[in-house]
Write a structure and sequence with these properties.
The complex is a heterodimer of chains A (318) and B (294). Chain A is mainly alpha-helical. Chain A is 75% helix and 0% strand. Chain A is built from 12 helices and no strands. Chain A has helices spanning 2-25, 34-39, 45-54, 61-73, 87-122, 127-140, 144-158, 174-208, 211-218, 223-261, 266-276, 279-307. In chain A, helix 5 (87-122) runs antiparallel to helix 10. By secondary structure, chain B is mostly helical. Chain B has helices at 2-26, 29-46, 83-119, 121-134, 139-150, 154-164, 166-181, 184-191, 196-232, 244-251, 260-287. In chain B, helix 7 (166-181) runs antiparallel to helix 9, helix 9 packs parallel to helix 10 (244-251) and helix 10 packs antiparallel against helix 11 (260-287). The longest helix of chain B has 37 residues, at 83-119. Classes of the chains: A mainly alpha (318), B mainly alpha (294). Chains A and B meet through helix 1, helix 6, helix 7, helix 10 and helix 11 of A and helix 5, helix 9, helix 10 and helix 11 of B.
Chain lengths: 318, 294
Amino acid sequence: MALMILRRLGQLVGVLLVVTFVSYLLLNFLPGNTAAVIAGPYGTKASIAHISAQLHLNDPLPVRYFDWLRQLLQGNLGQSAFTHQPVGQALAQRLPCTLELILLSQLIALAVAVPLGIAAALRPGGWLDNVASTTAFGLLSMPAYVLGYVLVIIFAVNLHLFPATGYVPFNQAPLTNLHDMVLPSITLAVGSLAVYLRVLRAEMIATLSEDYITMAVAKGMPTWRILTRHALRPSTIALVTVAALNVGALFVGAFLAEYIFQLPGVGSLFIQSIESKDYLVIQGIVVVVAVAYVVLNFLADVAQPLIDPRLRGVRRLG
Amino acid sequence: MADLVVEPILAADEVRAEAAGARPRRFKLTFWLAAGWMAAITFVAVFANLLPLPPPNKPLVGPPYSLPSWQYPLGTDELGRSMLSRVVFGARVSLEVGVAAIVIGLLVGGFFGLVAGYYRGKLDAVISAVANVMLAFPALIFAAALVAFLGPSLEVVILVIGVLSIAPLTRLVRATTLTHAGREFVLAARMMGYSSRRILFREVMPNVIPSAISFALVGMALAIVLEGALSFLGLSIRPPQPSWGNMIAEATQYLTQDAWLVICPSLFLFFTVLALNLGGDTFRAVFDVKESAL
């Protein structure tokens, strides 16, 4: 067990090195003189020279990369070419909003997907299963930038129930904040919800046909206890893996939802930076998101034996 | 000797023919609707220039904000441009990106997947490691960053989405190849002295193609959604050239005046993505592609 974690940790470091290197390489794709492009159209000679010195642009690539990596580990991601704010600070300011959005969406997604998935798996092919599966399939085909505006048209423009834009930090006015977050959270939740529902349903159907479930039924155990104690737990493994793999899509969805509902999160910073060609900010966000994604997937992998004792001490197949 | 090898193959062919006979019954009405929609969209996208439509950027074809009617089939937008014409030309962008990106993914990813799954060993380890790292980036964020760094244009968008589709296709084709490389007919071909290349492309590849097609359809849907997102963020084809994504983005300014301008391109996008997903699902069910192979 410990050995497995150690080996996975080694892989993790390797993947992180490559991921950060590729994020670093983004700067090399810039056309023309890198420092001049980063400085923007209003960059002076002095600021270009300053950027060039700061990023060590005259050093060979590996030297530059490891220097950048050292800075990254110290939390230094460079500074915005326009606001001159350090990228790390800008990210820290906007992260709470994005994380709140992701957290709320996952709560909604799980609160709907888990009971619905269990109910659908109880009678596969029944009316509830058909409705749930068909709806999930349809929702999976609906991009966030379509769903978001559908919600705005219905709930903001026509019914005036929830605002289309606006954001107050949670610690200032919790209720207003939650009210503002309803539509963005639902927009983001729907994609995850559909995925979780499908996975949990399939896993539950497989688990419910196992011998030990038949055994439990034969012993006269109440249905809800079989479902929650015996069936749900082994079915959760796939859910955890899928949830971790879903993190990438979740960031993407969060970015789009922030843009649609004009929330001051990392996503709107990302999109603003793309519009204003603030390259160091773009790079900083890419590297932070990619690292978060890789680390979360690692954690999900390591967590699997904790959920399912059958996986302990045995090397996972495949 | 030859009989020993040929007979099972013939038997397998019979089984396959039976399955083929059973196949049409498994295509449901929804599948035909999806296929019909895709055929119609493809037709109008390919022949957009020949159709009796006003140019997509011609203003005041009718009064602005007209609702759908006989004269203006899908209404007109805030400048009085024909929505039908704009949606049709937008379909062209979406399909172009979807098809081109998946072709890149299939050719490159398919090749690496076949080679990795068939030869295994160090080659497989290297290819799998690279694919895993490529999958470590959230697609849209990396695509948006790349397009921002390279400068937005349709070619860049196709290239970026194409490159992003290589890794998942490599993984899928590798997994499918693995399950076939150990089968009896491959062993038989090897015993008959066929070269590795012939076995790989003539014996293994035809068996991998169904699952690759099933995934390619879903991948095309993903590529279209991704292009839509990039367009929506102003990182793909630029207005006034219409694409579904930038039509949605533009129309959001007029959400309170005329919600139809958002709904119309959204519906086209939704139905196209739904149709492709349904197609992929049907293929998977018919050819029994294991989802766990991913």
